[in-house]
What we know:
Helix content is 11%, strand content 42%. The chain is mainly β.
Amino acid sequence: MKATIIQLNHCAACVTMVLLLMLGNNCFSQTLPVGLLNTEDFFRREQLLDNDSVKGSFMIRPLLLSNLSNLGRLKYVVYNNDKLRSEFSILPLVIEQQFNSDRPFGINDGSMILARGYQSRISVGFFGKIGPLSLQVRPDYVYAENRKFRTGADLLAQKISTPILNNGNRVDLPERFGNGQYSKVNLGQSSLRLTFNPVSLGLSNENLWWGPGRRNSLLMTNNSSGFNHVTLNTSAPIKTLIGTFESQIVGGRLEPSGVPIPANSSLKEKSKDWTYFSGFVMTYQPKWIPNLFLGFDRAFIVSRANMGNRFIDYFPFFSPIEKAAFDQSGVQNGPGSDDLAKRDQYISAFARWVFPETHAEVYFQYGRNDHAYDKRDLFIEPEHSMAYVGGFRKLVPLSDAFLSVAVEATHLEGSQTGAIRAQPTWYVHSQVPNGYTNMGQFIGAGIGPGSNTQSVEISWVKGLKTAGIEVGRFENGVDLSNNAKSKAWVDFAVGGLFDWEFNRFLLSSKLTYIHSNNYQYLDERANNLQFKIGLLYNFNK
């Protein structure tokens, strides 16, 4: 059985490499950035309406614009020569701003940070290509007022007991990014690629998103800044006799936050070492079941100081999935050796089923942050170290538009099996000091370790135009409150959203009121008002 498991893993790896090496006609590789206002969701809704030009899963992003329609909205072509297969385009100017009145709040905003007060981000750039070689330069600049608010360190100084700091020495997750104003220029959504349809090889700093969720995903989201990585990915769905495939292999560098610990704090200084990330994702659309998309992803992190130089150290996702098979794989030696490896792994399986006839979709993602010992262990206690994301959306036709009803739930809270066997907390690991973070923010689900959330959105939609209301419930760090036997910190949020397109502009805005019970796990209530507005200007005439 062990040998069979190893063979299956190696077989899957070989199939993936064969798929990625199937070369065809070259195509350009400008991408639609993850989280670019409401543009991604527009194309996803088009799939529900059977107007999809991608015919893909929407579960591996960013999407390539060569697969999308309505390109004029997203670039201004200055020069184009079909004979030389060359192009130069100016990318839209995007200005995003947000304001939190009383405390940090928000997820999936890329290089923006969790901060109180005013914050803005500006990005613009260009795209050029010659034959299969393309360069996308899209840096961004972030400024945050970063006003003071009460932190766990402040409470500790007042000798008030709170679980907030319990993750302080286990993950690089600053409560506040310094003591004053914050500003940073980074590479943003930039990349250098060599593309032969349906394969692209490149160097990139772009944000990635793996999985079917609209608001959360377990292994990869745009909750933090993009990170430097090498990517080998399909540039379009690959059609085979049994269905279509999409895939991506990534190896990259996660950076520490560089934020000093608060003065007079009992916390230890954070590691200044960078963390190596390696990940793999694949989706499959069966030929016999139209619009059903199945997926699998796996990721590892390891501090650079603890990383080896073998092939399996750079691509550990090719190692066995079951611990029972691990000792026979040649990766390590000795019983329980995988538990001793100074790295952390995450794995998930997911599915998305689209019903164009009824303009609906349903999706689910199940993940674990610890190996199951074997199949018996997995089937007897599937909830051990488990997390999940589940959602549904339905578009109801109106006279010339649609009513969109969407529901999503994310669960990262540890299961009851943790009472009788060791159970790691999602995104936190004793042997990887900085955790599953880049520059001080999680690269997975933005709600954070041991947290849960549920949301409902009802909106009127017509093309890129949207107006609606969203209600959400957030359970912050349930694992922390359970372990400390403290009160549960729960946020209730209600907000209105408004997106509009006019001439060369695309406006996206959201106003949210957040009420907190047992704020910071104390017996008190708090309120916060968040306002977000983004404006995209297309230089196209």
